[in-house]
Amino acid sequence: MTVNEKIAALRAAARANGADGVLVMTSDPHCGEYLPDHYNALPWFTGFTGENATLAVTGTESALWVDGRFYVQADKQLAGTEIRSMHDGAAGVPKVAEWLADRFAAGQTLLLDGSCAPTDTVRKYADALRPAGACVKSLDVVSGIWGEERPALPDTPCFLLDASVTGATAAEKMDAVRAELNKAGATALAVTGLDCVGWLLNLRAHDLPCTPLAVAHAFVGAAGCTLFLAPGRLSDADAAALAAQGVDVRGYDELLDFVRAYDKDETVLVSPASTNYDLYNALSANPHLTVREGADPIQALKGVKNPVELANIRECHIRDGVALVRFEMDLEKALAEGKPLMETDIEVMLRRRRAEQPGYWDDSFPTIAAYGPNAAMMHYHAEGEVNSPILRKGFLLIDNGGQYDCGTTDITRTYPMGPLTDNERKYYTWTLQSHIDMARAVFLDYCTGFALDSFARGPLWAHKINYRCGTGHGVGFIANVHEGPQSLRPQNGVVFKPGMTITDEPGVYETDEVGIRIENELECVDAGANQYGNWLAFRPLTVVPISTEPVLVDELSRVQIDWLNDYHRWVYDTLAPRLTEEEKTWLKAKCAPIGR
Amino acid sequence: MTVNEKIAALRAAARANGADGVLVMTSDPHCGEYLPDHYNALPWFTGFTGENATLAVTGTESALWVDGRFYVQADKQLAGTEIRSMHDGAAGVPKVAEWLADRFAAGQTLLLDGSCAPTDTVRKYADALRPAGACVKSLDVVSGIWGEERPALPDTPCFLLDASVTGATAAEKMDAVRAELNKAGATALAVTGLDCVGWLLNLRAHDLPCTPLAVAHAFVGAAGCTLFLAPGRLSDADAAALAAQGVDVRGYDELLDFVRAYDKDETVLVSPASTNYDLYNALSANPHLTVREGADPIQALKGVKNPVELANIRECHIRDGVALVRFEMDLEKALAEGKPLMETDIEVMLRRRRAEQPGYWDDSFPTIAAYGPNAAMMHYHAEGEVNSPILRKGFLLIDNGGQYDCGTTDITRTYPMGPLTDNERKYYTWTLQSHIDMARAVFLDYCTGFALDSFARGPLWAHKINYRCGTGHGVGFIANVHEGPQSLRPQNGVVFKPGMTITDEPGVYETDEVGIRIENELECVDAGANQYGNWLAFRPLTVVPISTEPVLVDELSRVQIDWLNDYHRWVYDTLAPRLTEEEKTWLKAKCAPIGR
After folding, report:
1. B158 SS3 class
2. pTM above 0.90, yes or no
3. Where are the beta strands (DSSP E) in A149-236?
4. Are B451 and A446 in contact (CB < 8 Å)?
5. Which residues in chain A touch residue B556, judged by CB atoms under 8 angstroms apart?
6. What is the ipTM of this complex?
7. Which residues of B touch A532 (CB under 8 A)?
8. Rounded to 5 degrees, what angle do the CA atoms B316, B317, B322 make?
9. Residues B276-300: tens digit of each pLDDT
10. If DSSP codes are grouped into helix, strand and coil, which group holds residue A551?
């Protein structure tokens, strides 16, 4: 089938169901950032392979909205099809909802698969169509067309992490969730986020690349908990361990039936942003259940790591640090030997060194290795024909991370490959100042991500430079490399607490010139109390030297220099016991104090 | 009448009206920070003279809540009366609402004067009593008891500021208000804040000490505007000027009758926080009026100063700067001559120098002159027996300001009086760093007061020191020295815009040791746009040298030193043309660059 034939099939399916159009989104029943191929229909239907798009098909038209990262790619991949490429966010381009509102008339119906769309997204489209007298109906017409070419649901072996790794049993976590539900006036929770299910039951698998989670749902009630997972995926021992903690197991696709048949009276806390529309409706329709809208308490609970998790996270960062040291030595050797290097070589070199470390499972995301101006594109990923040679000048930006049996890492370093321009040194130095000012912040315990974000932006803003993204995000524990609810970014209202982990990754991205980012993970720590209140601070988790060669030392303040030298002393002391003499000598030089 | 007799009278009045208790607050019909003595009943009823208290009287008990500034004073002034002194905010002390909820039973009634209480405050107490089945009733029993000793309403001559001073006519301001009302889906506004009435109609008087406003209300409708002001207070010429702009004038006490009789259909925007309860109810009860709750648009409009106002504000700061230079020279002379100085002498010395300046009307608030440890009390005011001698060591903190015919000023300097301790120098230096980091901030146009506040707190937080107040507040234009909606403080969500003025006044307050504050007013300015967005920055309005003698120069970064030296160069260049040769020589030395 061609793309146009597939679109025609969607159109025909709408007509056959008495409707006038179809909407297909990058979304799945779990409303997460990372979705299994089984649910990722848009590449097959449209030929567009980027993340995060929305396809609208009416009786006569079709259009695909993509964000700024993918304008060029969408134009190229949609060329020759009937689908119009819509640059979402560009001036003069209507939003999906506006476009639909202009095209649907009274009595007309738009189909979308409510089992694969967040409730608040469906509400947004319904609100847009209502003034015209048109409506939205939940119906899956995608499956019938996609048919045999559709990838199966993932089915990798599932396993439970021991409480010695996670610091809390599933039973303890359920108690914590119930305590939070109680505070919110609720008794039950439908858990649909893969990371939330994984956190709650200490359940992991390898269902998604780079993300060691299982495709599953759960339902926590006042008295029990049910896990919805495809049969046969749990070992008997793990199934018994869950049963002993009050967890019943049913089939993955039984959640909706379970909700419809639920006959105990409960108040269910539901987040419309992370609960799919069909599930929301099933919960609302059951007279035994009262729906109360609110934030999913698991988000906040898993955002704060417990002491066992933190000890494990620190260990995985030491392993990651050893791998990164060896990688950088390999890189320098290759450069010294004049070996031709392409961007795509970097991922291989890194994975080789990470794989030497105990407990390494996978990368935590596809490595970004971006040479020179390529690094100015924040979401650049070298692959296939998109691949540049690494020259012996300028910077190489490498953003990467690992999944270990004791944690998840995320780190960016920007390495000098040879001579640097004055601008490159300036941008590097200012980025480093931003990184340091975030890392050394001491603050009171009422500070939100928005308030803290200012510390990182200050040094770059002084030069009227900004990065068009957050300063940092939460990191999952053996889970999603991006995790909420905390983040360092404008508008984020989550108050920081000890035990939260966060990335600190300011950058400079000058189009066609250079991209620089310096990223450590930080742990939020208690810094003591005095008459003024409870103080918090950050402590680095990442144990990898930061290149000092590009630094314009005179731009740094004394406290910034002291932070960097202290960091490097700690990096050396922490990694040295796991390194050879040759590696120690190399690292000693990389960690040499500056500005003395 | 003794205090106990007055309380007994309140109790009797409640009984006589079929009620069971009375609540009296520091509040007036205008819901402002500064209230005329006419409305300030609590000093007369209780003997407590501090600001901001709440008195509750039941059939058998009475209690007065005061905040942390006034614990000691209230204990002293209430001693010997039946009124219990309640330390509001202290551990174990019930809040007013909790205390009332514990004492009122089903069917009982609490009286309060709803014409003198914000709607949301009354709602809070009504909500607290409702679960017990008790209720709140608006009734003024205060006036009948206070009787002849009650001060009359102020009646100073009113006058209109010319548009050459304010930059906009009343007609233009009404248009601006109507445009904002329209955005909020409303057509009318009851204007009750004295500063809001003053801004809207360019109306001023000297009804309150330090605050050149008139006690008046206004009502803006879709087609007209009515000013409620006591008869005879406007000159015929001013009354005619207002009439020509569509402003009708009625008696001050006619507002409620006017609202009740209003017969045009309007949607009235009402802020429950700044609209008194009786007015709110009158608006709600009129079937022609639809009440829509929302923020008063005048707050946001007057928070951004127009170019004419800004030019005038800059001029008044130059005058203030000249006065402050002469004052500091007088102070140094007195110290050099060994003249005994008390804290209360400072206000007199300052006023003498300000009075030499053209267009000086009044101070903008009672001068705070606090020597040594007294300055650690943030709201210290020397007066009567509270008065310390100024020794020749340590610091003298002076927070003061003026009302001129072209603007309102607010400035704090902390002057060394002789030898300083190491701690004093450290605290002074860190305070200065905080002040400078706020003043030199460059930021994008989405920043709120909360996000910006971090810039100022960072340098003090690094030493685990905080000040328990905002970094700064808005300043009225020939009006209240404290003005919203913008402020630099935690939780403030107002986004900064060019033309906003704000104080920058971080401090260190170490109990029984020292108090330090350094305050300039700043103007938020457009700093240009580039690919990253629209940049904003601050420019100092205050033109007064900051003592450099206490500064530990090595603690300052290069950019902080540069800011200070640039500031002092500008102070000298700006003031010199208005100074004598002797004064110029003195100022040149005070403005000498440091760290070179």
Report:
1. coil
2. yes
3. 159-160, 188-191, 203-204, 217-220, 225-228
4. no
5. none
6. 0.90
7. 464-466, 468
8. 100
9. 999 999 999 999 999 999 999 999 9
10. coil
